[in-house]
Amino acid sequence: MNTQTLKKPDINILKGQTITGKWHKKKYYVVKELGSGAIGTVYLCVYQNVQVALKMSKQSHSITSEVNVLKAFKKVQGHSLGPSLIDVDDYISANGHVYSFYVMEYISGDDLPNFINRNGQEWLFTLLIGFAKDLQTLHDEGYVFGDLKTDNLIVSRKPARLRWVDVGGTTLQGRAIKEYTEFYDRAYWQMGSRKADPGYDLFALAMVILRIYYPNGFSRGDNPRKTLQQKVQLAIRSQSLKQLVGKMLNGDIDKADQVKDYLLQYVMKQNQQTQLRQKRLSQKNQQETSFHPTLEVVSILSISGLCYIYMTLFL
Amino acid sequence: MRTSTLKQILLITDGCSNQGENPASVAAIIAEQGITVNVIGIMEDEHTEQPKGLLEVEEIAGSGQGVSQIVYKQALSQTVQAVTKQALNETLQGVVNKELQQILGSPSTMEELPPDQRGEVMEVVDELGETCDLEVLVLVDTSASMANKLPTVQEALIDLSISMNARIGRSRFSVYQFPGKRKPIQQLVDWTSKLDSITSIFSRLASGGVTPTGPALKEAMHQFGKKSLKRRLFHNEYPDVEEA
Q1: Is residue B153 part of a domain?
Q2: Most buried by CB count within 10 Å: which residue of A247, B40, B85, B143?
């Protein structure tokens, strides 16, 4: 029986250290730790002058599982589902313990709530439309993202896109969700099972949206369903978004494409309205601007005229 | 490749035993019978508390070939299902490693394979983990100091059942508390696939400061034994179990 992994000491990697792979002998220079979770720790590293993210864990099987998912994504050509996989290897520590790691593309950017607060609400719709499209592709491939939460999402720069960075929870449809976080978990809120189906991701996505309005989250209370309804009512002002989030939470929408279409329609409608408003505004402006210059000219002329009269009369 | 039903004992406690056999040695005997012993040490919210009494937790799980974890009360739900799943995975990896040894001859484990091949083997392990049948006997310490943690334990067990029932394979649970009235352990819930509906099962609390972890584990092992005996005698009454 294999209980070796349990006795392994925690990973102790310092910045400035170089990690050399046991199999492929590639060298990664550690810049800093990016974060650590239940499964492992992610480091920002430099390999051949390129920044990469390296995830290491004492649970070899978790790393292998995640690599399998990233490899499956690789097969979906021409579409960026998650960070691309660069290398898989083992690291042997100074005291002889073996830790598995994989290296992936480093995606830098902002977290979603920060980005929205800085750049405005309208960005939320743009980002979600793109994200829903990616999610649909993932679902079409037979997977469910699973551990969808604010911490696992990054808004990449140029172009601004919402992307997922940690694929640890990605599960084949029909199986039990591999990894989850209570606040985003459908079963925790008693709104469904913990079986991997597209609706599970959409519930979590709705919670990601809610989390923008409630940065510290909220507890589920005695009646979780009611709590959710209340929180949606209180926080979201846009009637359409409120409706959408409600449907995603209730499982009335079970396809990512439906979310995309709904949002697209909403944005189009908004655009038409703003165009109308702008038209009206610009008409008004024209009238005003045509009026202003004459006033100015008259006033300048009259003032200079008064000055001239004053000078000629009294000097 | 087929595996029979995986068996686990999950011990939830908050302190060290003070009566009867050494629980670690009992756990070793249980492991010999192919039953994994996992232990969760549960602490009060105060962060100052040193897990001194909880050192035993690691020791029991170590000799029981299982997984151990020490947690604060709030994190219990996630931990219970994570520990159960991890133990399931480790057991299956053990099974797969044994097969690998037979195929490859030399004593090799998954970790010694190059990463690419490892990925393929992992798919098999994942598949087994999803489809195998699982039996968990939950053994809850209900000595006086556990009183205020029991509602959380109950919630965690419901959550465990939700997680495990999302798998394709069958899962069955039974819940025991210890110490029982005049016996080492007391049955609270008989073997069932769903714990969703359990309510206030920990109503009768034992008073006094006795924590007979060793004897309780031993009794739990016997419960597993009894069950398989019963199964053999009346296998027609338990068709769903026999199929596994």
Answers
A1: yes
A2: B40
Number of H helices, E strands in chain A: 8, 11
Closest CB from B61, B97, B165 relative to A2: B97
**Partners of residue B164 in chain A, C-beta under 8 Å:** 176
Instruction: Measure the CA–CA gap between A274 and A297, rounded to whole angstroms.
Output: 34
Q: Give A86-112 pLDDT, tens digit per residue.
A: 999 999 998 889 999 999 999 989 999
Q: Which of B82, B90, B118 sits opposite A3 (nearest CB)?
A: B90
- Domains, chain A, ordered by start: 4-105 (3.30.200.20), 109-266 (1.10.510.10)
The CATH number for B44's domain is 3.40.50.410
Catalytic residues of A: 147
- The answer to whether the beta carbons of residues A54 and A103 sit under 8 Å apart is yes
Considering CB atoms only, which of B66, B82, B167 is closest to A176?
B167
Q: Which residues of A touch B (CB under 8 A)?
A: 1-6, 23, 38, 59-61, 64-65, 67-68, 71, 88-90, 98, 100, 174-177, 182, 187-188, 193-196
Check CB contact of B111 with chain A, cutoff 8 Å.
yes
Res. B233: pLDDT tops 60: no
Which of left, alpha, beta for A295 (phi over 0: left; psi -120 to 50: alpha)? alpha
Quick: pLDDT tens for B93-132: 888 888 888 877 776 777 888 888 888 888 888 888 899 9
Residue B49 has a pLDDT of 53
A91-101: burial string, b at 16+ Cβ within 10 Å, e else: beeeeeebbbb
Our CA-based measurement puts residue A211 at a distance from the nearest CA of chain B, in whole angstroms, of: 20
* Min Cα separation A233/chain B (Å): 28
Q: B154 lies in which domain range? A: 6-95+133-243
**ipTM given for this complex:** 0.82
What pLDDT does A5 receive?
43
Residue at B112 is within a domain: no
Å from B66 to nearest chain A CA?
8
Q: Which of B167, B192, B86, B162 is nearest to A189 (CA)?
A: B162
Residue written as token pair 């989850």: A180
The number of distinct structural domains making up chain B is: 1
What per-residue string of b and e applies to A157-174 under the rule 16 or more CB within 10 Å gives b?
Answer: eeeebbbbbbbbbbbbee
B197 in a structural domain: yes
Average pLDDT over residues A168-180: 92
On whether any CB of chain A is under 8 Å from the CB of B164, the answer is yes
Cβ neighbour number for residue B76 with a 10 Å cutoff: 22
**Contact criterion met (CB < 8 Å) for B168 and A174:** yes
Q: Report the gap between the CA of B141 and the closest CA in chain A (Å).
A: 24
